[in-house]
Amino acid sequence: MKKVICVIMLSGILASSSIAQTKSTSELNQSKVSTMNKKETVGAFLGAVLKNDAATMRELANDNYIQHNPFIPTGLESFIQMLPILQENGTTAENIRMFQDGNYVFMHNIWRNAKPFGADEMVSFDIIRLDDNGKVAEHWDAMTPLVKETASGRTQTDGPATASDLENTEANKALAKAMVEDILMGKNPNKIADYISSEQYDQHNPGIKDGLAGIVEAVELLTSQNNMFKYTKIHKVLGEGNFVLTVSEGEWNGKKQVFYDLLRFENGKAVEHWDVIQPIPTEGLANNNGMFGF
Q1: Banded pLDDT at 20 (limits 50, 70, 90)
Q2: Domain residue spans in the chain?
Q3: What one-character DSSP code corresponds to residue 71?
Q4: pTM of the complete model
Q5: What is the second-level CATH architecture of the domain 166-279?
Q6: Fold of the domain built from segment(s) 2-145
Q7: DSSP three-state, residue 169
Q8: What is the C-alpha separation between 179 and 183, in angstroms, rounded?
Q9: Ordered DSSP codes for 32-69
Q10: Please, what is the angle between helix 2-15 and helix 38-50, to 10°?
Q11: Is the pLDDT of residue 148 over 70?
């Protein structure tokens, strides 16, 4: 039940309506909504949910949004009776990064007072698809506890947050896809130096040290434990400039996993990496959409 409540809360925050029925003084009219860009719409939607601003959320989201959080049924009204849990726990969200690729907005977030999620503080990647009318239409996510002490000394979320080199978006997306295929899916693992900078690779996975040497050390340890990450399929690649997010499926710790990997590129090489890994549940599912379905 605790896990179900956790996912309900997260999905409600990012892809649902509020329980409140009264009009808000901050309600956005349709003309104002239509002038907002996609990042502004997603940011306003997140803020409205945290404030329990039902009127604004209903302006910004579709009634029949599609939910890929496995414990939440598809549709807007399913969340109406669940959002008070946010207020009860004092849960807050801090957006660290927000990028856009077409109709998709992808975010890197920290959640605090998040015990119903499974820990006091959690880190997530969230993806929102907006429809052709600019309304929130679909949501995907993955979440992991925030770790205070990491192998690299970096946090799971620090580092640059603003995209540059926008003209190289497609080239960087192609690089990220090839890197996952060659290195993580084992197509050409010896090409690792072709993708990752030997001069700088800032690592935000809490269990891996910086640099190529940190990756090699982690691979050797996991392989010795017969517990190496196994990536089996790339489901989505999203990018803005020098930042690219890949969403992949695979196995680890004897379980099916979803892997969200955010990479920052410079001069054709990956120089920084953040990730979230979450087990894919097989029981107690509230919808049949799966955690992928892009």
Answers
A1: very low
A2: 2-145, 166-279
A3: T
A4: 0.89
A5: Roll (3.10)
A6: Nuclear Transport Factor 2; Chain: A, (3.10.450)
A7: helix
A8: 6
A9: HHHHS-HHHHHHHHHHHHHTT-HHHHHHHEEEEEEE-S
A10: 130
A11: yes
